[in-house]
Structure formats: structure tokens, C-alpha cells
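Lesson 9: reading folded outputs for more than one chain in a single document. The general rule is that every protein is listed as its sequence immediately followed by its C-alpha cells, and records are never interleaved. Here is the first one.
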Amino acid sequence: MTAPSTYWSRRGFLTTSGGTALALGLTGTFTAGSAHALPAEAAAEDFAALRAKWRTLILGEGFSPAAEPFKSKLATLGTNAKANWDTMAPADGSLWPGMVYKDPEPDTDQESYGFSGQIQSSFGKLYTMAEAYAQPGTGLTGDAGLKDAVITGVEHLYTQVYNENQARYGNWYNWQIGAPQSLMDIAVLLFEHFTAEQIAKYCRAVDHFVPDSVMDNYTGTSTGANRVDLCRAMILRGVVGGSEQKITLGRDSLSPVFPFVTKGDGYYADGSFIQHTSIPYIGGYGAVLNDGLGRLFALLRGSAWQVTDPGAQQFLDTVEMAIAPFVYNGLMMDNVSSRGVSRGLVASDPFQLPQDDHNRSHGVMGSIVLLGKGASPEQQARWNAMVKGWMRRDYYGTALANPKLSLLRTSQLYELEADDSVKPAPEPVEHRVFPNMDRLTHRRRDWAASLSMASTRISHYETGNGEGLRMWHTGSGWLQWWGADHGLEQYSDHYWPTVDPYRLPGITVSKKPLTDGQGGDWAGPRPDFAWVGGVTDGEFGTTGQQLRGIFSTMTAKKAWFWLDDAIVCLGAGITSTDGAGVETVVDNRNLGASGEPRLLLDGVPQPATQGWNTKRKTGWAHVAGHAGYVFPGGTVLNVLREERTGAWKDVNRGSSPKEFTRRYLTLWQDHGADPADASYSYVMLPGASAARTAARALDRDWLEITANSPQQQGIRVPSLGFTGVNFWAAGTVGKVTASAPVCVQIREKRDGTATICVADPSRTVTGLTLTWKRPVKSVTAKPGAVTSVETGRELVLTFGDLSGSYGATHKIQVRTV
């Protein structure tokens, strides 16, 4: 695979990129056939209007530079720009000392990536200076010396390296996206101060590195978010250089991004988003794509180049179907940000704050507000209410208090927060399955959870550019969860450099030692099992993962049943021949720098001493302020309190070596070395009190485990009318019989109706007979996949070919007798 961006290319996007349009008048929806007629020859004022609009889109407007938080942010911008100015020292091969871009052996190896990355970083520093010149209240506003320094710097980079005669080396991204974006933004901000010849040669440089041919095919590095970024470079080059052809080509080349895909990069009909062929990336490249499209829609709206492709409306719909499910109370869930979660603390960061799941979401929220200005009034109202709700409920990393959030994003969200006509929307109660990226989300009134899996379609993890070095096991059933009023800091407080990477919560894992970045850059290692996924009725869910451990022989069948106040977790067939120990991690809570919550085992308080551990038969456990855990029939539970020390550099070679220490409380079940057909079962109760946990443990009638074998795994919860079964092989579990390997869920309601949900996670089932030994009066609704129905003393459903339904849920509504 061609390697994607460098360490610097996207790491700051969600916290530092701008793009607000507080007074652009973006209204209405996209409609086909409403394109403005392109004039025979666009007038100079047309391009000037676009430059003015883009200036607003990168600087913002409508805020008071004398009011907080803008005053402080503008002052910081001025301080950073002054530091750049003071240290700029044009020399052969560099513009700043220590930022060498001249490659003595130009090629595409990792060393060359570092040199090409410095070209982009140098343009980025110049953009900071140009912004400080253009923004009010920076202390450098309109400073002629600063303006001249920017021009000198741009000329130096053009003359030395970024010109039409230079051959690329290192990372393609730096040449085709990173550098031209900053260069064209600078050209917009200082347009009247550059000569016509300077503008012409900078445009020639962009034409050289971003030729028209990059739009010829929607493949390789010209897909998804990368495609949008390339279109931005093309369109802005047209705006700066006065080229109708470039703007038109850039606009038209957005069209392949809009349709849903069925393989590879892009958005899927189920809300999944994939980049790099097999990586769930809504929190990274997906966010970049949405921000980029939002700004380009805003730029071109009302002009001769307005985006009128009807597919654009389908893209807008992804805000609620793809992005919103992974934002919870102001944080963007880590399991759709891939290696981006390792982009923590950078030594040069003046704030010494890591990029985390909260500040990653702040840029996303600003993008949604901007996109809403071009959506229907109904969509805009829903999105604004949704974003305001996220902002209000985020007690840990609030957007408006984020010192790293750009001035532009701050102005967007500040305006929304100040608008009393927008009422914050609550979190939804829902269960969402994303079968095309092996992810799901489960939301309740007081907590939320998300699961990460891997399959023949989706990689265990991604490493590249020195990032994501120890995320090997994030696809092994990693279960994240948060409470509405607790736990929002769980994965934010220096989690990735300090957590034991072999003990991520929820995973079943071989303790076989792995090396940093094992598998190599961009390898995206995938297991050879396809039966991964599940079903949902929209509120509850049943999920299964046929797991093969990464770089190990360990295999297992894992199942989760998602209910109103609990998650029932089963494991079976756990087998390994690595010679290493195998564990299932019930939970692993980050307690912060000094946390010591009370731990109860069967109601008995345990020591809070660091380093304390135990291994004992346990029926239930409770961690104060976190959750309760019930072990049906009891289990031998291992518990450890420990302090762990690490640096962000340990998980990302480009990050800070500064060390942090955090406390962890880990609960796990030890299956021993080389287990054969081991199993587990436990019930997680997020946010539960000790009393509720104890009561659930004593209630023998609440849960029936109907199967927990390598062939089938299932449960019944009579009080909820819930039945869930993963049929790894055809068979009968309780009252349900399936003739093929499928996932089945049944919910009976007190009104005499029931919902049956069926999915084919393996995508191999070409025919299915499903029998429910329960009297059924009639089938009131069924999908086309059901070819015949028999009712009466039992229900028999016959399905046709399910293999082409991409693991989607098929719902059948029935009336019971």
C-alpha cells in the first residue's frame, strides 16, 4: 500500500484546523439540475469573491477579539507567530534550524518521509505567521515586517524545493496535500502582497505536484478523505490562479466521494467509513473528509461552480448515520480513530496537553455546525441541538475551554452555545451495528459502550509513520464504555502510553510477546475468520466474533448480548498452542494519577494498596464509581492494582518522551498456557451500585445461559422477553433452531408482538430455515429475504440467499398467540 500521511499531516487537524462561516448565508439543500450556468469567461471579480469567501472560511468572523476566549487565543497565535518569525533562518536545505527538508538520498524510505514532512511543516509555520498578520488582536496584525518574512519564506521554499522542476521524495501526502493546502491558504491571505509572477509560479508548483491526472481514477491515494483534500488543493489553486478549468475539475472530482461503496475506502450504506482499505476511520480520515467537504460546499455555494451533484445530500446524511453514533458526551470514540489515538503529547506543544478523544471531537463538532448551514432546516436544527448537547454534557474536556481548539472552531461553537433558541438534545437510547467495519455502539440513558472486532474484512490494527506501535489487540473484542457522569476521562488521561497493551478491556488475548509495530507499516493484519458481526432491533443487540489472535495461534468464540442495564459476555472454544498464557480481560479501569476506588469481592472490601493482587473464586465484584460485575456460577477471578509508567513516545515515535504514571485496576480470567476449549461468562453492569450488583448476582432467574460452546452461544432474559443466539454452526438452542451459521435475536413484548432479527455475519449463507418453537398467530412484516412463512404451533421462516446482504439485520415482526 502506498503510505499515507506523515506524523504531522493529520495529527493536528481536529484541534487546529479551521473553517467557519458565521455569516455565509448557507441555506437550502442540494438539488439536481440547479447548477449555475458557467460564464464563457469568469471575471476577475468572480475569483476575488471566492478568495474573500475562503478568507472568511479560514479566519472566521463575527467574534470580538477583545472578548474571551478569543482574546487569549489571538494572543497565543501572535506569540507562536513571533517565535516562528524570530527563529526563521533561510539556509540551503532548510528554512528553520533543525527542520531540514533537503534529502541527501531522495527516495521513499522512512528517512525520506522525515525530510518531506519538513516541507509541509515549514509551510505550516509560514501559515501561522500569515494568519497572525491577517487576524485582529494578535499583536502582529498588519505588521509589514511579518508580512515580508512570510513572503521571503514562501519564496525560499519555492526556489529550493517546492517548484515545478522538483521530483517528489518521501511521502506523497506532503507534496500533494499538506504543502499545497498551506501554500494556497497563504496566497489567499496575502494575495494583494504577492506579485502576479509569484502567484503564477506558485500555481505552477501546485500544478506540477497535483496534476489533473490525479483525478483520473478513484483509486489508490485518491479516494475518500485524500480525494477531498486533493480536490481542495485543485480548487484553491484555481481560485488563486484564476482558472475556471481547475475549479471545475476539482468540483466535479468530488462526485466519486458521495456514493456509498460496497468495498474499499469510503462510506457504506450501514454508516461504516473505511480508509486504507480495511481501517475504520470515522474519527480520523472521516472527520477530515467531512470538514473538507463542508468548507468546499460553503466556498462554492452561490457561485458559478456550486456543487449540485444530488449525491451530496446523501453525504450530508452521514452526519447522523455515521458520525454521531461515535460521539458520546463530547468525545469521539477511540475505536474509529485507529493509529490517531497514539498522537498524544508532542514535546514542542506549549500547552503540554495530549490530543485525546475529547479534543478530537471538538473539530468534528465544528464541522457539523458548518455542514448544517448547507443542510435542510430540519437537519440543521437536529444537528445543532445534538452538538449543543454534547458540549453541555462534557464535564472533562469541554470544547470552549480547550486551549488547543483553533480560534475558528471556537467561534463556531461559541456562537452555537450563545444561541438560546437551540436546546441541547439528549443522548439517544439505541443500538447500532456497523457490519462493514466490525464496530457497534450501544447507548442507554446513563451509559454507552462500543465494541471493536477484526475479520477477513477489517484489520486488527494499523501502524505507520511510527504511530500506533502497541495497538495490536484493539481488534480482539476491545470493549470501551463510559458513564453519563463518570468515566469520560477513561481513555483521555494518558491512557495509551500507560495501559498494559495486553490487557485492554474485553479482549481475549495470547500473552505472546509482540514487537512494536509488528507486521510492518500499513500491513493492516487481518484474521482469516469472517463470522464477525451481529443483529439489532434498534435498542438491544446480539454480537459474535470468531477470533484469531493477532500473530498467534489463539482462537476463540466470543459473544456479547446488549441489554437495558447490562452487557452479558460469553466466551467458548478458547484454544492456543503458542506456549503463552491466554487471558480474558473483564475490565481494566484507568484510575488516574491517584485514584483508589473501593473494590468489593462478594461484598468484602479489598485492599487499596498499589501492587496488591489476588486470585480467588468470586461470584460478583464492584468497583466504586465505575461498575459491577457478576460471574454466573462463580469464577476464579484475578485482580491487580498497579501503577504503570510510560511516555507517548513509547506508542508513537514522533511524540514526547515525558513520562506519566497512572493507576489501573484490572480484573481478568486466566485460561492458562495453551488452553484447550476454555470458556468464560460474566455480566457487566456499567454505573451500577454495589447493592444493585449484589441483587443481580442473587437473582438466579434473571439470566439463563442457554449455550456456551464452540457451536452455539446464547442467553435468555425472561424479564426482558429477550433471546439471543450466535449459531456458529447449525443446531438448536432452547426454542430456536437454525439450519445455517447465523445470528438470531428475539424480543417478545407484553402487547403480544415480537421482533425477530437475523443476520449472516459470515456472508456465506445461501439459504436458511429458522424455527421458533413458540405459537405465532401471524407475521405482520418481513423483508424480501424471507421467501416463505409457516405459523401456528411454531414459526418456520425460510430465507433465500443472505450472503450478499453485507451482514445487515433482517427484521421480522410477528403477533404471538
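And here is the second record, again sequence then C-alpha cells.
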Amino acid sequence: MARWCYRHRLVVLLLWLGALFGLGTASSQAGTNYADVFSLPDTDSATAYDLMERAFPERAGDTDTVVWKVDEGSVRDASVRSRIEPALEEIGRMKGVGEVTDPYAERGAAQISRDGTIAYAQVTFTEQANAVPMELIEDVVDTAQAAEQDGLAVELGGQAIARTQEPPQGTAEAVGILAAAVVLFLAFGSLFAMLLPIVVAVAGVGTGMIATMLMSHVTDVPEVAPLLGSLIGLGVGIDYALFIVTRHRRGILRGMKPEEAAVTALNTSGRAVLFAGGTVCIALAGMLVMNMRFLDGVVVATSLTVVLSVLAAITLLPALLGLLGMRVLSRRQRARLAAAGPEPAETSGLAARWSAFVQRRPRPVVAMAVVVMAVLAIPVLSLRLGATDQGNHQESTTTRQAYDLLAEGFGPGFNGPLQVVVDGDAPAGLVEGIRSTEGVAQVAAVPPANGVTVIQVVPDTSPQSEETDALIDRLRDDVIPQSGAEAHVGGVTAVFKDFAAVTGDRLPYFVATIIALGFLLLLVAFRSLVVPLTAALMNLIAAAASFGVLVAIFQWGWGTELIGVGKEGPITSFLPVIMLSLLFGLSMDYQVFLVSRMHEEWVHTKDNARAVRVGLAETSRVINSAALIMICVFGAFVLSGDMEGAMAGIGLAAAVALDAFILRTALVPAAMHLLGRANWWLPDWMEKRLPHLAVEPAEEPAPAEAAPAGPSVTSVVHGFVLTADGEPVDGAAVTLLSKGGRQLDRVTSLADGSYIVSVPGPGTYLLAASAPAYGSRAAHVVVGDGPLVHDVELTGDEVDAVN
């Protein structure tokens, strides 16, 4: 397929452009129909919600609030009424506004605070918030705030009003893409190579978002789903394309033709991308275990975007590679390739030195990494799930100021009233029992409608307060049963409390499911019990530390105003499930990429130390580049204007940073050095029964890399070339000679001082190493049936033992 896409690149490009424009046209005609369905089956709040719908089926529109406050006097003064009443009347005449409740009307006294300084009016639209035209919302805001004057402040709150405060759509994505472009340019040094992953990711995310808009008409898709879909889609889309482009460029630098390099890259890294995308989708599908309708829409949006991002990487990317040809390399690389010919792949000096350090000091590295992760995980012990509301918005927003004014004038619980819903007439003692309950500020029973009675209950405390949660429990467990009524506690606050409780109850099953899936996938891929067990433990450590960061910022308020995400509060109930799914999928990507190279070296040498060292040295740079890109993309979602999006962005950015820079490049390799050969242990009976899964097949060598004719290689000698102080010697010449003095193999040590020479068979050989600044040293080595580890120490006073 890669070769077909490469050769028929114009057809592939036209197909993708057609899909984008076709879906875009359809979505512009159909619009969106997002629905935040937080109700849960078999919960008290869900039953209350169903009864409310039966009682008031006509109240389908969104209800927002206009709040005003005077510095002196009363809101009843003629000077205030003469400005507010005309504004409310004008709003009531607007097309799309169903009703405006006026505090100056006959039954509006309850809408004025006791001290007379604050009042509010409720504006009910004919549509839900996301369907109300933006022009209408802006007209309502402008008309209301035009009534302001010195000493009279007017603010507005509600879901529809909040839409006017959202930044321009795509701001977060644009900033994330720009930051990723900088990282890609530094990694590749080529403008065209930099653009490739971005174009591929935008194509995948664009089609995914448009398809999600269309799917919102046939299934319940929450409003936050497209934001989360674009967040994960951009991250994985750019990273997947990065892996493939890196392999393609390496193939060209090694002397392959561009077409063959592209085919080989897709056959190797492309297969790894398919595997990685599949694991992310499996992790996302794990959310279905929670059996929550709200999460079903999130699974649809995010999984669809990931699938389309993978499809773009394996079809659109080879077509773009065909268009660019040799221009995927920088001018300097093309000139060097033309002048000096193909070059071997070399490990980065910094990466090799770090890998050697981890091998020499595994215990301190493990201890330091564990301490860092444990300290970051401490805040997770105080994790509290709940819901964010407009009280968490930034202080400068009109919604936050309206929220604070209502709390000031009518009590903190006014922003999150409870509804005690009775199927039938409410017993006389129920209202009195609720009124006398600790934590209740106000109680008002609405006349029965359609056989349902609703009792409005305003708590003493805010919707996010733990005392409000305790009040809900008292009403459900004590007050309602004592009255003998069949009543249920509903309202937004009760819904989110039930949502958090159900999430907490089902979360262990969800975690067990995704950990088990990850264990099985890695078990089959790497034929080892310890590697998947280590990966599962690392996933749990990364989750705890990243949630610790999340709690410190969003729940404790360490820097929320500084980064522009508003006031602290509980962690959104559904966020742990979504974050754990995404974290599991992304961690699997990095684990597979890192351990697959280690496994390849282990199969070749059966030397765990070398396998871990080489695997880390050769993959850490790409893993770190991919992680930097994801951190940029995820971190940019702080600018989304959505509290849940900001939480997910910062939480995932922290998770990726900790996973890539501490776990995969420090803790995992250090632990594997300590475990030794046990890393690759698998019982014989299990080996025979497990299916074989090739995550990334070995790349076929280019003709320039073909091994020279000669005796077959049955073993190797490998180790380090070091100074007397234990420092690695880079560029030392290491020569293997027969007892008769015939040269059998000759290599140059890498930046970390490592070398490996091929041995034709068991026996005694002469191994010599030399470097310009250190002279040389030679010694006899005896090779048996397996690989031999032999370190060479060079000093400045050595003689040339070979010559």
C-alpha cells in the first residue's frame, strides 16, 4: 500500500482533499448537536431528572441570568429601575428569547437581596445554549451592560453567556501546532520535513473533528468531546508522522532511493504506528467499562480522530514523501550525501553518554526517579472529584462576577440549588423537615405539575463544597425516609455528586481492565513476563504523579490564576477516566518503541546490559522529541477557554513529561539493568502457546550495508573502551585478530565507548584497541559458545601493541 500511495500521490492527495471539503460542506449545512448527558441510570439524581422532565416538558431552553448591584441606595430606586427595566423589555422582545422574569414584577420580590443592593432577572431562550445564535447572545450581553452607570454594575451568567468568553475557535490548536513546528524544525533542520508531520496531523484531526460534528446528530456527543479529540489527535498524529519521517530520512542517508526508503519506513515504523494507534483505541474503548452515556460520546470522538490520524500517517504521508523526494533532507544533508556518499546511523553523543551513565549507576538513578515521582504523587491523596462551574472562571469574566454577586446577595448555595422531586403530592412534614435540616438556607415548594411536586432547596454552602455533598446525603438518608415520601434529590449539584460517586466505584475495574490489556499486548510482543509487569507498574506510577500535579494546580490552586484557568476547585469527575485511557495509550507507544529496540539487541547478543544500553541510546532522542511535541500540543490547551480542556491538557502534558523524561529514559532502563536476564524470562509452556506478533520487523539492509562475504558469525565480543578514570573513549579503533595475526573485524567505539566485534567461532583471539591520545592496548580473549563481555582500559603511556 505504501508503494501504491507513493506512486499515485496525486490521487491520494485529491482523495484527502475531497474528504476534507466534502465533510466540511456537510457539517456546515448540518451544524452541531452536542449534548452533555450527565444522568446515570439507577441513580437518585437520574430519577429526579426524569420526573422533572415529566413535570415541566416545556422548559427546554437554556436559562441565563442578568445580575445588577448598586454601590449606594437600593435596586428599587427609580434611577436604577429606569435603566434596567427598558433593557429587560428590549431583551424580552428579541427573537429567540422565550421569557424574562423581572424582579420588579408582582411576584419578583424573591429576586432582590435582603439588603436591596443586588437583584437578578432570568432570561430563558427558546433553544439550548449550544443552539442559541451567537449574535443573539451578544445582543443580550450588549443590551444588559449598556444599562451600567457609575454606581451600577451589570453582569451576566449562564451557559449561553459563557460562549461569548471563549477564545476564537482553534486558538489552542494553532499555538500547539506552532510550538510543535519549532521542535520539528530543530529535530530535522529542514522546512519541508518539519511541515510533513503537521500537515498529516491536521488532515487527520480535521476529518475527525468534522466527522464528530456530523455524528453528534445521531448519537449523544458531549461538548467537550471534540476538544479532547483534537487534543489527542494532534499529539499522536504529529508523533506518528515523526516516527515514520525519521525512519525515511535515515534510509535515504544510508543510500536508499527515496521510494525504497519510504516503503521501508512504512513497513517498519508504519507497522509500529498501526500497533500504537490500535493500543490507544483499545485504551479509549476501555472507558466503555464505566457504562456512562457521557463517556460513550468521548470514546466515539477520540477514537475516530485517532483512527483517521493513523490512516493519514500510512496513506497521506507516503504520498507527500513522493512529492518531496530528496527535499525531505536539508540542503546541507543533500550536499554531504552527494559528496561523501551514504553514512552509517550513529547514536547521539549525549544519548549514548546518558545510556552509559544509567548502566554504571542504576541504583542511584532508580532511587532518584522514585523519589521525584513519589513527591509529585503526594497531592493525589487529597484528590476530590466533582464538577467545575462558573465560579471557577477567571475573575475578569462577566460569568464569574455574576456568580460572585449572586453568592453575595443570596448565599453561596444559590448558584447550585437542589431539587427534591416527589412523585405525587409532597407530605406536609417533608418541607418542614427539609427546612429544619442543618445546611439548608431556603426552601420553596412549587405547586404540583403533571402529578409531580418540586421542592427548591438552597444550601448554605457553595455547589463545590464538601458540606453540600454532606447535605445531599442527609436529605437522602435521613430526612426523606423519615417523611415517608417517595422523593428524590436532583439538580446539577446532585447529578455531579452521583457522577463522582459512580466514577469512584467503577474506576478500579477500569484501571484493572486497561492494565490487563497492556500486559497481554506486551507479553505477546516481547515474549517476557517482567517487561509487561514493569510497564504496568510504570503506568500506575505515571498516573499517580500526573494526578498529583493536577491536584496541586487545579484543586489546591497553585498557579491557577497565573496560567489563566480561574479559581481552584474539585477535579472534574470524568477526567480520571479520560486521562488514564490516554496515558495508557501514550505510555504503550513509548514503551513499545523503547523496548522493541532493546529486544532486538537482546535476541542478537543475549547480553541484557548491552541490549538495554543500546536500546536507550538509540531511541531516547526520538522519544524525547516526540514527548516535547506532545507537551507543546497538550499544554496549549490551557488557552482553550474550557476548564475541562485545560485540566486535560495540563494533566496529559505532565504525564507525558514524567513518562518520557523520567520513566522511559531513566527508571525503566535502570530497573532493567538491575533485573538483568530476568527481563526476558518466559516459561517454556507459555512460549509455546503464545501467538507471535511482530510489532516492527527488522529493516532490510540497503545494498550499501550488505555484509561482506566471509566466515559466518557465531558470536560477538563487546564492551566499553574506557580511560583509567572510567570515562568513555569515543572513536577508538577496536580490532579483532586471529592467533596468526589476520584481521577478522575492525570497528570504532561509539560516544559512550561501547563497541561490538564479530567472532567467527569459539577460540582464542587477540583484541586490540587504540586511540590517538591514549596509545593502544592488546589482550588475548577466549570466546566460548556465547557472547563475551570485555572492557578495554586505555592510558596515555601505552605502546602500539598491534604494530
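What the second record shows: DSSP finds 23 helices and 18 strands in the chain.
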